[in-house]
Amino acid sequence: MDGLTKAAGQPAIARFPVTTIQRQFWFMDQIAPGDPALNIAVRWELRGKLRASSLETAFRGVIDRHEIFRTRFADHEGQLSQEVVEQVPFRLGVVDLRTTPAEHHADRVDQIALEEAAQPFDLSQPGLLRVTLVQLAADRAVVLITAHHIVFDGYSIGVLGQEVGRLAAAAEAGQTDADLAELPLQYGDYALWQKEYLASGVLDEDAAYWTVQLRGAPYFELAPDKQRPPQRTSAVARAGCDIPATLIRRMEAAARAGGVSLFAFGTAAVSAALHRITGAPEVLLSTPIAGRFDTDLEPLIGPFISTHVLRFRFTEDSDFDTHVAATGRLVEQALSHQSLPFSRLVELLNPPRDPSRAPLASIAFSLQHVFHRDHDFGGFELISQPSHTPGSAQDLNIVLIGRPRGWRLSVEYNPDLFEATTAEALVQTLAQAFEAVSADTPAPAPAALPVAPAIAGRRAGATRPFANVEAVLSAHPEVATVAAVPATRDGAGEAAACYAFVSPRPTSLIPLETLPAELMGFAARRLTPAEMPLGVSVLAALPRTASGDLDRALLPRPLPSGSAARPQAATVQPAEGEALETELAAIWADLLDRAEIPRDVSFFDLGGHSLMAVRLIARVRERWRVRLSVATLYDTPTLCGLSARLARDLTPETGTSGAPNRATAAPAAAAAASAEGDDDWQIEPLLTEGAAQPIIGVNDVGLIIDTCGHMRDRHPATCVRLFDGTRGIDRSPRSFEEIAREYAKTIRRAQPEGPYLLFGVCVHGNIALEAARILQSEGADVTGVVIKDVWEPGYAAGLKTQRATRWAERIYALRNKIRMVRMGLLSVSAMLGSYRIIRRTGVLQLAHRMGLIERVRASDLAPEQERFVSYISAARNVYRPEPLDLPVLHVVTKITAQGKRFLPSIGWEHVVAPGQLKTVKIDQIFVQGRWRLGTKELAQEIDSWLGARG
In this model, does residue 817 exceed pLDDT 70? Predict the structure, then answer.
């Protein structure tokens, strides 16, 4: 077992926020430290001759190239970040099996692979990658790779394979350069972008979609063979079969005939088969999405994957063709709303927290080609091989994967829940379903699909009624056996009303007469009110059949037929130590921003979520110096429960008093300035001296002043504005033309007669152009308009239908924004400043899907200003300018997308009359704080343009 050696004590050279998927993986690691389900195991066959030293050099090169492999994770008072260190030494593990008989190679490799994949990682240390070379012969070996999911995903396997192969080939040839293209970004850059992207409000539409789509959905699961443990385990086993290439071709043909993708067709077949097995009217499947939506993310290593849940509805008369069409639409909608992180979806839906189950969906399905393509690198080949999954996050994971040698259907299952025969029957049923729905004959209805006898009639949901009640009570340390039965003999009365019988452990010391009340309180902290048993009875032993199984029929029903009525949820007795509970309540109130905290309501029902849970536990640890885990909060999520648990854990030495350290809220902002007696605030004189053409800027001050300082002649300059703090133009609905007409009136007040020379940046440039057109239509003399980085609204809106161009524009802006952040031109809080500029240019509909929207906040704009810009941007978004027959100088900088996909003047070529538009490029123009970039070049271009026009 080898890989990256620890780099403890190294200073961080860069610190970034974590992405949503990294936060999810980190939180899962906090719940179950070292869970192998969070590891990714990869296996390559190495054919040909390659020295171990060359392979080690190749991996070192990849580690140097990708910051994510030199990253550690740190939690500072609940604020999680990823820190990059300069260097992490790497050592390749080598196991030599050349002297081992060849017939034992496969078993030994499997054993080594299992051991490697199960080894945990320490997320606080950089080095979340291990590699072992198992040498089988002089020209044959196996490369075993284990990486933590927090730094790696399935797509990364292909990136890693190509780079390792090329770097190893270069090392074998004695070369130091493998001619790998420079990475445009690092994963930390993407994390910075995602943070601002999520804060922009872009998720509102996606959140609304998924909330409507999944609200009220039942929890779908295949009934397990074994009683579900109180805590979900990550044990995994696998069953599978090969899928003939002819069948895949028929499925592809059927998918084309139905107008859907192969993935949508396969998803339709799997969901229909599960409906056939269970008879459930609704089936839910989770599915992974790669999340690499643009080319600049493709060469990166790191976790971009996201998970989404698909909901399928069936009726008695559902036919498969209709189901395929509905699935196609469902998949298409899911892809168009894929921005919402899974953790946010869980927070929105706020399902009951059940530590024994995966949230929202228990079964996953994926259909994909293998990530690493077999490749010949000259003296050796790297060939993808099936690898062992270290652990499973779901009950069942159905995978249909294509390799160059053929396709294979696999079902990864949790052996703590299912027998191997059940998994094998599921594989058989799915394979039969693929055959049935892609045959030349009409596809059978979902309810009529073939099903393996061993799994036929397996109902959805729990193995038996009230299994969750049994699982919870079984977790109590004083309980040996549990059986929950309907509360009435005939099952009448309120649905799901049950009564529980328990037998105590032989070692139990608790008085039996107190055990029922103890168990009711224990259950109340773990079950929803609807799940609570009506009562608990203690029997010395529960009745059993001759075969040893529980005989539930012999258990008495405590209530007469039809009389079951559910009481209110059991009231948990007050925890000892009222002072402790009061202090804990104060921490809850601070985190949840609530004035009062009910004692017996779940933390998560009060608005808490996973990251907030981490912060709560961190506060508790800091205050009371106890080693409390996040899992404890899931186990006892109520205030009274957690305080009771805390009281038990405290010793006299640690149980000190004192209020927690609370931050004091900042005072409220000062009141807005009064506009009384200030009639000319809309006109701001900037430069009053000079005889040259006056310049009027729309909502611009700093850039005009600095540019005029570099111009050949002295130009008076004025800024006109309709908004200042809380005064000025209201935001009642009006057209962009009406807004621009108000600016034109203000311009005439500032300068009663022409000629007019107007200036505007981004959306303010749109206003300057429309105001100039209005002035010209009224007979005024217009010298021209200077604009910078202004999109023509109709052209920008048209890009929405061009996927390749849309993403090209998006990644162009992303790359530029990161460059500005690293140059120090933008703070992290304003890292989407370039997107804000694009936002102001009328590409809002396009930008809303891509993160380039008007709601992105920047550090140089106060909230009221942001709202004003959003208001005029929204109006401009639906505005289409009339033809302009006046001189226009358009200065385009690197913050605006450029290249073969885009018009040089981003659409104004079609609006401004021929011969009237001049477009020039300047790398960057930036005036803010101490920065003065590009204004000299801008002044020269304006002078040249004015001079040429006489």
Answer: no
